[in-house]
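Let us work through a complete example step by step.
Step 1: write down the sequence.
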Amino acid sequence: MLQEKDMIADAINTTKASISCYNAAIVECANQQLRGTLQQLRNEAEQFQYQLFQIAQQKGYYNPAPTAKADDIQQVKSGLSSAQMNLK
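Step 2: predict the structure and record it as tokens.
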């Protein structure tokens, strides 16, 4: 029998997988109406996943990584900006 922690983890992972599928469908979709519907479904799934995450965190089932240092964040931003400029 699954424990509550396992059920929450399973729901989070399933929701994350569905978000990935929505993203894949969105970037391949040429029909604007369908694209908008998929984006709405993705946004709802993201909200649901975040609610599940909050429950898991409150119950002590999930401990997020420590907050990144400002210097580390800036370094990543600079690297991403640099990579984006190289694509242009």
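Step 3: interpret the result. Helices lie at 4-28, 32-58, 70-87.
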